[in-house]
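Bench notes, bay 3.
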Amino acid sequence: MSEAKSRRWKAGLQNFALALGTFLLCIMVLEVSLRLKGYGNLEIYEPDPKLYWKLKPNQDCYTKIDHKPVHINSHGTRGPDFETVKPANTIRILSLGDSRTFGWGLTQAETYSDQLQRLLQEQLGDGQKVEVINAGVNAWSYSQMLVYFRATALRYKPDVVVLADANQWTQFSEGNSAEFVKKFMWRVRLKNFLRRFAIYHYLVEVKLKSVYERQRTKFIPVDPTRDTLFQEQQKADPNAMFRVTIEELCRLAQSNGVTPVLLYFPTADDLNRTEIPPILKIKQAVHDTMNIPLVDLTPVLRPEGKGLYLEADPVHLNARGNELVGRQLFQIVKPLLER
């Protein structure tokens, strides 16, 4: 190589290194600036071959909406730590659900699980300790809750399990192929890597939210009738799958001495509809056939309507809405503990 050509290569490499360094410096400045503004440090999930995803234990983070503090304990549930073996003189209640149970945009104290714990503790006094375990995980389905309850939560010996609502997806069940599970584990790892950056939080999940939702639902259809990843009979009648799963969880609870309670969350749009939503129909049927207590929040939330939901969010209840849920659950759970 001639000396002139060598100098050109050297100059080119120097220019490339300078451009790359400048780009990385800008990225670092942007990342730090966004973190100072409250973006980033979202909850991190672990891939799991049975549950598909679960909260990574021992992390302190913030909710994606409204930047509220979140502590995930050593058991991978939101809230303070607890002993695996239930201590003597302890009433233990397990809250199962999705982001509405986890506390989307809420502090721990604002969640209905914490509200229920406080009300029961005030009622029972110092003679017994009340523990309400918030096992809500964002985007979980009924099938995932069943697997978690059977494989993990039964070890905690809860006295009551509250089964709230879940994402109505059929593909995240135990019946999937090993190939599907393996591919999805890779997706969970990639998502977790991206969620560690404030830039991803700001650009993808905030500024490009509509684009992000469209791409996400191509792989995870919100409408269960459009689920192309599972068996034909479940695509044809997903509601039958949901009912079977809810019934199985309730039977499993009862056979282990746990009292199940069904909880139904209406969306803001459901509050004034005349037709009964499919999931409420299912839970009413389980209530009728298995004599399982059912808390339908529709009449409780209807008077205050959309003022009980997060801003521009017809699904997730705000702190006031969760307070009403906690009080309604208290009225149902208290007599069950007195039997």
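Next record in the batch:
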Amino acid sequence: MPAFVPFRLISPAASLLLVPLLLVACGDGAQPQLAEPLRQAYRMLEEMPRAEGDGCAAAPAMVQALDGWLQAVEEAGLSSQFTTETTEVRQRMDAIRGRCADAMASAQATSADGKRRPRASAQGGGRASNEDPRPTLTPDLLDAYIRGVEEEIVLMRATGSHFISLSMYSEEDRRVAEKAGLELPEYRGLRRAVDEVLYAHLMHERYAGADGQARLARLEPHKREHAIDMLASEPFAPLSPAERDAVQARLDTLRPLYDRYMEIAAIAD
């Protein structure tokens, strides 16, 4: 097996691109040997700075690195050993996409040969198939979110898995999208937008008051830092006034549904 290149000698995105190479080099039956390299790669991810403000220029590379690690874990068949880590990586990807939407959209609009493509409308038409547009949240779309997540929960319980990848058009992905009544990229964009708000709401609720502060103090340092970052902003800040009203009107349905999903996904502090 090739040696794992030290993190500080290469960029974050490049470091994670080495992980699939490990999978190929080790061959069939070598998955258990990949657990430690994947743990090392995860620690590299934790050292990556948080993308926000001017740092959003690095957001596409960060998301690429995070997604590369997730794919490596899945291809190695080690998802069950990295349940907490994969959940945190997905949440971080969603947070980066939410904070750095313009940078991510700009990267998606650039073709492989470096030429700029016109940014597509969120209503469809010429939108590239790999874009997950951030929709304007409406009551109808929140209903679609509810239908989709309920179907994800059904499938997770039926299969014993901790998540539905929504990363390709598998039978499960199609079922979720059809239940929501949306195309898969549209559902992913909707799910990311709503989850970002519900996750922030959950974090504010979890660490509110004296009990919450005591809970916060018991977290591992990197998790405490993440929680403090989340608590620094208001959960509904990313929403327009109309979106805020729509989400708050359905919050009694959305939060219990989100909490059910989180319980099955085995989300830990």
